[in-house]
Write a structure and sequence with these properties.
By secondary structure, this protein is of the alpha+beta class. It has 3 domains: 84 residues, Rossmann fold; 61 residues, Dna Ligase, domain 1 (2-Layer Sandwich); 182 residues, ATP-grasp fold, B domain (D-amino Acid Aminotransferase, Chain A, domain 1, 2-Layer Sandwich). It is built from 12 helices and 17 strands. Strands 9, 10, 11, 12, 13, 14, 15, 16 and 17 form a 9-stranded antiparallel beta sheet that branches. The protein has a 4-stranded parallel beta sheet with strand order 3-2-1-4. Strands 5-8-6-7 form a 4-stranded antiparallel beta sheet, sandwiched between helices. A hairpin with a 2-residue loop joins strand 13 and strand 14. The chain is globular.
Length: 366
Amino acid sequence: MMRIGILGGGQLGQMLILAGTPLGLQFLCMDPAENAPVDSISERIIHDYHNIDALRAMREQTDIITYEFENIPVLAVRYLAEKVPVYPGPDALEVAQDRLSEKNFFRDLNIPVPEYLEINSLTDLQRGVKIIGLPAVLKLRRMGYDGKGQYIIRQRSETEAAWNELGEAPLILEEYIQFEYEMSQIAVRSAEGEIVFYPLAQNTHRNGILRLSLAPAPNASAELQKLAQTYISDILQKLRYVGALAVEFFYRNGAIIANEMAPRVHNSGHWSIEGAETSQFENHIRAVAGLPLGAAKPIGHSAMLNIIGVAPQTSDILSIPGAHAHIYGKSPRPWRKLGHITIRCSDPEELAARIELAQKLLQIGS
């Protein structure tokens, strides 16, 4: 029986295992945390990603390796890939880990991006805000997620404060895009080059954290969907990518501008568990295991709402028609993702009413 290794033991790993187990696959995870969501359904090596003995054990005990988040040392992934296939490959991980490399990569593929500059000093930043204009966003090139590691500069007088907050690490300054929506495109590519595309999702954030995804995106035309698929296909082909990939776009004036990519299954694709013929999680597992990909066609209209900080009673979630609860088993903490709710409905107006019920339950907007 094939055994797949997963670097990371969080909720994405948990959902990958839940999708892959019915396919007759076994799993082994690696994560340094004392407790992890995967623990109830998988064996786990509890070591950090620099531990050579743990990495050696991982590659000796698995047939294929994947990962559920991108902040893993590339050298560790390259070490694993010497003996065991790792999907997505280390080149994709390396591009996605550095926002400057990522923007350069998009630009080389003629994918539109915000104007941007590399920043290595306060002088660079002062010059950069003159070139790009304000407002602008100063970001860490590495790490940072859910709005962390960023500083929006709205006035010249804030430049030094932004540098003092973030300037100890390599940075990128980006044009601030006044977007109408964020949209995300998820696709899965097999080793043979087959690609399946999920519909664009329309995403709403609060305090830098994704709160709501709608799929298919209500404001995405057929032409926009085709364009997003072209962009992500170019990325997949260039990287000889295997597995699920998400690309986040800013939507403005009927056009999309690439923000960043995630070389893994993605929060905005959680709707696909109940809302697509084959979920992003199952298709990722199918791809890395060399199995035929499943159809990504949506079943009606779907919404996904993240459960942040405090989880409501499961019974209250399930009292909403068409709602499904996914609780990760993580301890409550402010701004922590504890689970998500998916709602599927054939009628978009009815879906909107059910979303409103879920938002009241989650106290979104209060």
